[in-house]
Structure formats: structure tokens, C-alpha cells
Amino acid sequence: MPISAGGVAMGAWPRVAMEASELWVGFVGAGRMAGGLVRGLLQAGKVPASNVLASAPSDKNLDAWRELGCRTTHCNLEVVYRSTLVFLATKPHILPGVLEEIRPAVGSQHIVVSLVAGVTIQTLQRAGAMVFSRGSNAGDEEAALLKSLLSSCGLCEEVPESYIDIHTGLSGSGVAYVYLFAEALAEGAVKMGMPGALASRIAAQTLLGAAKMLLETGEHPAKLRGDVCTPGGTTIYALHQLEKGALRATIMDAVEAATNRACDMAKD
Amino acid sequence: ISAGGVALGAWPRVTMEASELWVGFVGAGRMAGGLVRGLLQAGKVPASNVLASAPSDKNLDAWRELGCRTTHCNLEVVYRSTLVFLATKPHILPGVLEEIRPAVGSQHIVVSLVAGVTIQTLQRLLPPGTKVLRIMPNLPCVVQAGAMVFSRGSNAGDEEAALLKSLLSSCGLCEEVPESYIDIHTGLSGSGVAYVYLFAEALAEGAVKMGMPGALASRIAAQTLLGAAKMLLETGEHPAKLRGDVCTPGGTTIYALHQLEKGALRATIMDAVEAATNRACDMAKD
Asked: Where in this chain does the record put each Pyrroline-5-carboxylate reductase catalytic N-terminal domain (chain B) (predicted)?
């Protein structure tokens, strides 16, 4: 007897299609990470909102999804039944229970993508940094689909799974190191007499400009750094301070600590 | 008197329309090059309206490739331009100002990019009444993501300030400030890009230590910087708020941040901004 949930006869599944516009996309879990990803996808016009279904235990997060035009439910199974591409976006400790719950509904037509670790999502278009790995049954077609879908959100690269924890330490958490850096840059300027709001704007713009130079010139950061260093000029005086403060070692410590924590959490 | 075939009695008509503006650069080095690339890419000024001078062809080849006109004669730049950017090295500027002074008139807008040279000095070395502004850009103007601040001299009015701002906003953030902020901007942003490059290098190297190949690590590091910068600029939220948003309790981020605090990262960066700013002030006094 066909099982029905939410009025949809489960025997009649949506036709499987690799066309992104015909793709039925589901999210199990609707928190910040999932929200960032779906905003990026919708903004890029990759998937119509009406093709997106998200589940969460309460309405707390789901209101925002409905405002975007997505469908919502409290039933994880419904997401799996009604979607081809299923993103898992629960908290790590919840995931095992959820997997056990949805397992009976998962079939060969599904592409299951876990966001539970190692994906950095920015809510803004084309500024994210994401890496993904494939399981043994996900082939070139699935990888290409995911990459094409997510490239609208930023840099999206396939990597060996061992890199995912490193990516967490470098980029997932890395954005926080940049926010700290921006705060300190602005505060240095405030100490020297610049008002805070202006200093903050200039600090952020400085980060943006330097990042664009790195990405668009493709030059080694050390080369670009050298280009700015006029002999006896202001920059080399500043860089001496950064070396005295062991800035590089401190940042490497941070990436290492975050990566190790990610590995430890994965073992739990 | 004639120079280069143009009768110098017949000057280009003065106009505030950017597209009809005749723009000159005295000095054609890296910073000037960054600025003109930004202007041209944004379509603010046609390349044929730009004339740059330099002692040798070394820098000027690149300008010709962009479609700009070039010369070895500073006076020609002043005669043929309305908006004149001064972009020489600091120790060369006084000599250049003495050279071009006879040709500077009330129709000119003189904008100095020269580090450490104050508006007071510029006004002293140019004819009385000259409209003078001083600007400090940074190199990412090349990719139209620059950060620039400028100040006006006593004869530069709202119209000149508005023209400069409208022209240069195509290269990035462009704000008018009191002259005392210019040295701070040097320490924060002019030199600041170098601190970011160092930061990017270290981020990537941390990932390499953990096992990621360097090229991938560098790309991700740069993209991480870009994304965080965009979040700051586009949300307008305080960096501490955005930082907190990323800190899941007991998660990877807070472990990393603890390392950054142990390493006194913030104090180190403030030291750098201070050192660069102080150096800028010292250089200005020379």
C-alpha cells in the first residue's frame, strides 16, 4: 500500500532529472549553514524556491525559508521522499538519529550531500569557499551537478575527504580570524586618531582590495607584499612589527588548532 | 609658443564633465598606473584624454599599451590637462613643481598622490590661488577595489571635491577627510594591504602543515579573505558580532581564536598600524 505523507502519494516520486531547474532540492535541518546555501542558490537563480523543501523540528528557522518562497515541513521523511538532491544540515550529534529515521526512504535516485562538517557558506553570492568529497557511489555526474550548483555561491572544489577538516580550520573558521584582523586594523587606526566608523570601513575595504589582488593577479602573496615595500617606507616598518609579534606562527597555530578540533569532533 | 604642434594659446576648454576632462599625470609609476587603470576600466575617462610624463620610457610603455598618450615633458602635461595628478617620488617633487609652476593657472585642478608632501607645501610651491587636493590611494585601485582618502587645499571647493570623488569612486572607496587622517590611512590601508598578504600567506601555510597542497590552500585563503571582507562591507555589522556568529560552542573556531589571543594578534596588528603611521608622519617632516 503506498504510504502517504502530507497528501503526496509516495509511490509517485518526482521524475529524476539532472537539469538543475527541474531538480527537487531538500534540506534536512534549516539552520544558518543551510540558510546561507539556499540563499546563494536562489539568488543565483539556480533552483526555483518552490522546488525547495526544508524540514526542521520547530518553526523557528522555517519562517525565514517560507519568506523566501520555499516549502517547509516538520517531517524529515517528507523531504527525502519529495527531493532528489538532499542536503543534510543537522547538528552533528543529531545526525545519526536522523539518518536512521530517513534511511528507509533513501533510494538510488537520491544524491545525499552532508553539510554537517567542512562547508563554508557565505550568505552573499560568489564569495563562499566550499570543498566537497564524494562517497563510493557518487559518480562524475553527481559531482558535476553539485559543483555547478554551488559555484554560484563561490569557490567550490572537489577534494579528498581528508582535506575537509583542514578546510574547516582554514576557511570555515578562517572567516572569524579575518573579522578579528579587521577589528584590530581599525583599532590601530583609532588609536592614531581616526574615527572608528571610517576606520572600520577602510579596514574592510583594505581586506577586500588585497583579496581581489590575490585572486585576480594569481601572484604569490610574498611577491605582492614586496611590491608594496618602498625602501625605508611605512610598510616595511609595519611588517617588522608583524614579524616581532610572530603573526605568521600565531595564524598557523590557529589553523592547526581548528583543524585538530575538527578531526577530534569527527571521531566523537 | 608651440609645443608638440599645439599652439599653447589655445588651451582645452575648461569643463567639469568627466568624459570631456583632460587628465594628466606627472610621474607614471605604480600608484599612478593603478589609478589610471581603475579609471579606464570604469570608463570614466577615455584613454586618449590621458597624458602621462616620466623621465624614461620604462614606465610609459605600459601607459601607451592602455591607449594613453605619453611624453617626457612635464610642462606639456600641465598645458594639455585640466586635472593634473602629481605622482613623482617625494624627493623629486619640489624640483618638478618649480619646473611646472609657470604653466599652472586658475583652470587647473592639481591632485597630489605624493606620500608625505603636505597641502601646505604644495600650495607654497604652486602659484597662489591654485586649486590643490591631496590624495592617498592604495594599490588595489588596479582591480577597482581600492581605498582612497583625500583632502582639499584652501582654494579647492565643493565642485572640485565632488569631481574627484565621482571620478575615483570607480576605483573603490573614496572619502574626503581632514588632512591629519592621511598618514593614518597610509598605516591602515596603503601599507595595510601588505599585512593582509602576510596574513594570507600564513593562513595557507597553516593548511599546508595540516596536509593541504599549497596552491589549493592559497586559493581558499584568498577566497576566505574576500568572503569575510564582503560580509563586513555588505552587512555593515561589527566584526565582533560577525565573529561571534561563527563560534559554535566547543567548535573549531573558538579553539582557533584562543590561539590568536595567546599570540596577541590584535596587539601586533595595532603595533603595525602605529609604526607605519608614525613613519609616515616622520617622512612628512623631512
From this structure: 23-116
Closest Cα to residue B125, out of B86, B96, B168, B90? B96
For residue B149, the cross-strand partners are B136, B175
All residues of chain A having their beta carbon less than 8 Å from the beta carbon of residue B249 are: none
B90 assigned ligand-binding residue: yes
Domain extent listing, chain B: 23-178, 191-284
B23-178 and B191-284 agree in CATH topology: no
Q: Which residue of A has its CA nearest to B276?
A: A234
Mean pLDDT of the region A19-30: 83
Query: Looking at domain B23-178, which CATH architecture does it have?
Result: 3-Layer(aba) Sandwich (3.40)
Instruction: Mark the ranges of chain B whose per-residue pLDDT is less than 70.
Output: 1-19
pLDDT of residue A129: 83
ipTM, 2 dp? 0.89
- Taking the CA of residue B106 and the nearest CA in chain A, the distance in Å comes to 33
Chain B residues touching residue A260 (CB < 8 angstroms): 255
Residues of B in contact with A220 (CB under 8 A): 218
pLDDT at A174 over 50: yes
Whether pTM > 0.90 for this model: the answer is no
Mutation for B interface: A94, A191, A207, A263, most B CBs within 10 A: A207
Task: Please list every residue in chain B whose beta carbon sits closer than 8 Å to the beta carbon of residue A229.
Answer: 194
Tell me: the pLDDT tens digits for B75-129?
999 999 999 999 998 889 999 999 999 999 999 999 999 988 999 999 999 999 9
Mapped onto helix, strand or coil, the DSSP state of residue A161 is coil
The total number of residues written for chain B in this structure: 286
Beta strands in A141-238 (DSSP E): 154-158
Name the residue among B188, B196, B283 with its Cβ closest to that of A210.
B196
Across the interface, whether the CB atoms of A235 and B138 are under 8 A apart is answered no
Which 8-state DSSP code applies to residue B42? T
Please tell me the distance from the alpha carbon of residue B130 to that of residue B108, in angstroms, as a whole number. 7
How far is Cα A258 from Cα B6, in angstroms, rounded to an integer? 66
Chain A nearest-CA residue for B246: A176
Cβ partners under 8 Å of residue B67, min gap 6 = B40, B46, B47, B48
- What is the DSSP secondary-structure string of chain B? -EETTEETTSPPPP---GGG--EEEE--SHHHHHHHHHHHHTTSS-GGGEEEE-SSHHHHHHHHHHT-EEES-HHHHHHH-SEEEE---TTTHHHHHHHHGGG--TT-EEEE--TT--HHHHHHHS-TT-EEEEEE--GGGGGT-EEEEEEE-TT--HHHHHHHHHHHGGGEEEEE--THHHHHHIIIIITHHHHHHHHHHHHHHHHHHHT--HHHHHHHHHHHHHHHHHHHHHH---HHHHHHHH--TTSHHHHHHHHHHHTTHHHHHHHHHHHHHHHHHHHHH-
| Superfamily covering domain B191-284 | ProC C-terminal domain-like (1.10.3730.10)
Helix axes A196-217, B192-210, angle to 10 degrees: 60
